[in-house]
Amino acid sequence: QKEVEQNSGPLSVPEGAIASLNCTYSDRVSQSFFWYRQYSGKSPELIMSIYSNGDKEDGRFTAQLNKASQYVSLLIRDSQPSDSATYLCAALNYGGSQGNLIFGKGTKLSVKP
Amino acid sequence: GAGVSQSPSNKVTEKGKDVELRCDPISGHTALYWYRQSLGQGLEFLIYFQGNSAPDKSGLPSDRFSAERTGGSVSTLTIQRTQQEDSAVYLCASSPRAGTSIYEQYFGPGTRLTVT
Questions:
Q1: Given B48, B56, B107, which is nearest A44 (Cβ)?
Q2: Chain A residues in contact with B103 (beta carbon < 8 A)
Q3: Tens digits of residue pLDDT in B30-59
Q4: Which of the residues A60, A69, A72, B94 has the least number of beta carbons within 10 Å of its own beta carbon?
């Protein structure tokens, strides 16, 4: 299993719906996770971090971490066309200097008006 | 406040030439990272600087790649004898490594490198 895995999508949801983005991880990463949004041709933009089991909410975004099942998810409520982007899941590297992030390949989200 | 800045935004070079890419992190951030993103590929870690500690170079793909960070702030990534497979977007990020945002990394706009 790769260290951080995401379904590449595309995930298509209608405007106003809840978009659910999922990510699984291996034992080779630490349990500190980050969600980034990346618009085409732009650099990644941090949305949320989550370190503890359970839910963390910020506006329309909710991050969920389930350590027992080794998955982390991002819910986007009331999806808007402007949310259309690639969403990257990242984990803090467990080994070495514990400095860098290990990224999944990203899930492309399309929100249809 | 000002975010991470990178220069140049685009660089086209001929195979075999050396290039230097520059990153200016967010003021007060002690950690600085270089990643690259190739077309269709995920973000790949290259090197990490934290304060005055020796850098973590474990992600550098070959000895043609090197980086330095002067005065704990600005960093330069150097690629010698560029190859076509070096074509990618090179992204710099910085992190406070303190406080509640301790591990959060904030990315600059990137440098798109094209090797012809």
A1: B107
A2: 32, 34, 49, 92
A3: 999 999 999 877 899 999 998 888 899 999
A4: A69
